[in-house]
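Deliverable D5.2: sample structural annotation.
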Amino acid sequence: DEDGIYMSSVMKNPYLEYINDDIPVVDNGETIGYKKLTGSEVIEVMGKKIDCWVVSDNETGNATFYYDKTTGLLLKMVSTSTDSSYGVTTTEKIEMIINSTNVPLIGVKT
């Protein structure tokens, strides 16, 4: 924005209640698509175990997003794509995990 603050994808709790709920993806006040809440998982990020909502992309079906239940911050994304050409099929998996943030990550007690 004009203050130089960039906010990554954030998912807030009003949309996250029940497994298989459709979650609207909103851009400038307009719903441009939907994602689906598929579960909950504890993942390790920046040395902390974080309880996350697991959300799948309904549009492509090949991306999974992990949102911190406390802050709503997107912490991890896993995407898989398959391509076939010249009789050879290849599968590529891309995993992105946040490695720095000014948002406090509280974590879970172990």
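Annotation notes: The radius of gyration is 16 Å. The CA atoms of residues 52 and 68 lie 5 Å apart.
The annotation will be released with the project's public dataset once the embargo ends.
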